[in-house]
From TrEMBL:
Its EC number is 2.1.1.319. Keywords: Cytoplasm, Methyltransferase, Nucleus, S-adenosyl-L-methionine, SH3 domain, Transferase. The keyword Lyase does not apply. GO terms for cellular component: cytoplasm; nucleus. Residues 10-69 form the SH3 domain. This is Protein arginine N-methyltransferase 2. It comes from Danionella cerebrum. It comes from the Eukaryota. The lineage of its organism: Eukaryota, Metazoa, Chordata, Craniata, Vertebrata. GO terms for molecular function: histone methyltransferase activity; protein-arginine omega-N asymmetric methyltransferase activity.
Length: 409
């Protein structure tokens, strides 16, 4: 053991667990999200020799994150985050997204009578477009438009130039640090990131809800869900991996494993999934009730799925997207849905593609069962890991495949 320790104690690096890992077989080492492990040997790409609480074993490198020595930048990366939102680029992208912006406009228009005399909080108002919809399409008593970035200075101007200054008060502040004049009847926000949670602005929305939403108040969106479908992705796989088989007549297939690691280990944002590439009907795997969900719940969200393949083809991976639902303020009013999936009008989020390391040929009637886990990054608080576990036509635990996709750290 002494010899082992002297070898082990050399150049050990500290890493942090991004998600729970359950060892299969004696050689592997189990750990939970947030655990700090000492990695002694990274000679293999995929499996590292690590130590945790005096035990040694192999751990999957994709489940580990380097712990920043001293977190010189804050874990929320707020400076960079709010600097980005202080420029027009992202706001133009969101405002140019008609499906997104028109849905919110429709929600306010169809509830305009009931909004009369109410107080509305717009969390992360950006240019103030939603607050201006409230002030021009209905007669609320007040709208509190909260925006932490420097965009708020322009928002003040836009409110004045669109006749909203009687109703709308703009606050340039993080909503968590804010004292409002009164509690509110409606909390309105467009907080959804890629795969629903990325950026974790939802935490700010929930903290604002807990502090400022009146009992019986309305959350808009009221609920949201993450939807998943097994899919084909021939073009992506051809362009990223098969490309190396024949590169100007040369055989570069030696690079394919590097290509898999570089291009397939992270999710692909802004993927445009075509309906014909869906291998089965999609399923809502995770659903959030925005009135009752707690901040602690969003550390780790998990859902199961079971897909019956409806067409033979190649199983390249999974595609995910989200929907948001807006309950009516009127007793029997109609719920409005913003669906960012392949069967709805394209939005700026598009969909997110998660590719398997190697595609699997699949037949009509095959059954893909498994689970999806959204695990918040224990260090970088706006990031998460998405872990897919699945198997095909079997419930035999030994045949379960698992892949952990960091988004992004
Ligand atoms: N759907 C998204 N993924 N992002 C769109 C909304 C993001 C807007 O909310 C602002 N914002 C984000 N977090 C906060 C916060 N805690 N307090 C105030 N404004 C915020 C941010 O500056 C930006 O203008």
């Amino acid at each position: 053991m002494l010899e082992n320790e002297s070898v082990e104690s050399r150049e050990a690096e500290e890493f942090i667990g991004l998600a729970d890992f359950v060892a299969e077989g004696g050689e592997q080492l189990s750990f939970s999200v947030g655990d700090k492990l000492l990695v002694h040997d990274k000679s293999s790409e995929v499996w590292w020799w690590a130590e945790f609480q005096g035990h040694f074993g192999y751990v999957p490198s994709s489940y580990l994150n380097q712990t920043p020595e001293d977190l010189e930048e804050d874990a929320w990366q707020d400076d960079e985050y709010f600097e980005n939102y202080g420029t027009l680029r992202l706001h133009l992208e969101m405002l140019a997204d008609k499906a997104r912006t028109e849905t919110y406009r429709q929600v306010i228009l169809s509830n305009s009578a009931t909004l009369r005399g109410r107080i509305i909080l717009d969390v992360g108002c950006g240019t103030g477009v939603l607050s201006l919809f409230c002030a021009t399409l209905s007669q609320p008593a007040a709208v509190y438009a909260v925006e932490a970035s420097s965009m708020a200075e322009h928002t003040q101007q836009l409110v004045q130039q669109n006749g909203g200054e009687e109703i709308i008060t703009v606050f340039q502040e993080r909503v968590e640090n804010l004292t409002l004049p009164a509690k509110v009847d409606v909390l309105l926000s467009e907080w959804m990131g890629n795969c629903l949670l990325f950026e974790f602005m939802l935490e700010s929305v929930l903290l604002a809800r807990d502090r400022w939403l009146k009992k019986g108040g309305m959350m808009w969106p009221s609920s949201a869900c993450l939807t998943v479908v097994p899919c084909q992705a021939f073009s992506d796989y051809r362009k990223k991996v098969e490309f190396w088989d024949n590169t100007y007549g040369l055989n570069f297939s030696y690079l394919k494993s590097l290509a898999q690691k570089e291009f397939l280990s992270k999710p692909k944002f802004s993927h445009h999934l075509l309906p014909e590439d869906c291998l089965s009907s999609p399923a809502d795997v995770i659903t959030l009730d925005l009135l009752t969900i707690q901040v602690s719940d969003i550390e780790r969200l998990r859902g199961e799925f079971r897909f019956t393949v409806e067409k033979s083809g190649m199983f390249h991976g999974f595609t995910a997207w989200f929907s948001a639902y807006f309950l009516s303020l009127e007793e029997h009013g109609q719920t409005i849905q913003l669906n960012t999936g392949p069967h709805s009008e394209l939005t700026h989020w598009k969909q997110t593609l998660f590719m398997l390391d190697a595609p699997v040929s699949i037949e009509k009637g095959d059954v893909i069962t498994g689970s999806l886990c959204l695990q918040r990054n224990p260090v970088w608080r706006r990031h998460l890991s998405i872990i897919f576990s699945w198997n095909i036509n079997s419930t035999d635990a030994s045949k379960i495949h698992t892949k952990c996709f960091p988004m992004w750290r």
